[in-house]
Predict the structure.
Amino acid sequence: MGNLLKPLATGKFWMELVVMTLGMAVGAAAVYYFLMPSKLIIGSISGLSIVLAEVFSNMGLAVKVSTVILVINAFLLVLAWLLIGAEFGMKTVYTALILGPLVDLWAKVLPVEKVISEGTSVMNDPWLDLICFVLMLSISQAILFRINASTGGLDILAKIVNKYLHFDIGASVTVAGALICCSAFAINPFRLVVIGLIGTWINGVAVDYFTDTLNKRKRVCIISDRYEDIRKYIIEKLNRGCSIYHLEGGYSLDEKVEVVALLMQNEYAALLNFLKEQKVEAFITAGNVSEIYGQWHAVKGHKK
């Protein structure tokens, strides 16, 4: 228990708590203002909750969408904690449990009836509602993925599939979301279901895009006679690790040394500036890396 509560004493935890709250506020606004009025069932737990709430209503049971969201997410959170990890689980517990209350908060602060000028939805067009919802949801997911959290729900299933079956998160979201979309046949006409399926696919693409962008690192390979200066700069100034490889030139057969490091974009720019200022002659190649397995951290442990 002490290890679980230890992060509570750090400033990083409270900063991330604020970030998670703001991210989920954006996601809740997307659900309340665009998903619920238009009754578009995008492949998400929110979409499934709308279907179930409507089905319960047809059965004579008055159940709020926010309540259904809370119940489904509570079940998925147990899976997140057990199958993904404690850190992800703790953060997702918080984000998932506040989604329903934040939806209710938006309803009190700015009721959707005051936003809708005509028709039955905010944009009065299912395609525009779809674009607005996916855009806002993608922003929310981007904010949370950056700090190893998620919006809960379908993201939990996607993380589980990604971890154990090694599928792309976007592909996992799309497949699971498509199944949820098909449940919308219970309350929506065929046209709206098709729009939901398209929206689910777009959301999956957006998830992959933002995930790759936020996780992107530069794999930098440098061949230079001044490799020791480069190594020291990476370790002492950038606080990153690196690897040293001894090579033999294919043309000249001269012995060479290559320094390889994984850097953030700003660190890569700083390294290039260092090489330019110090007039270091080097052959440099760099490529983007979107997935890293195992430990990747600063040498001194104060950068992540």
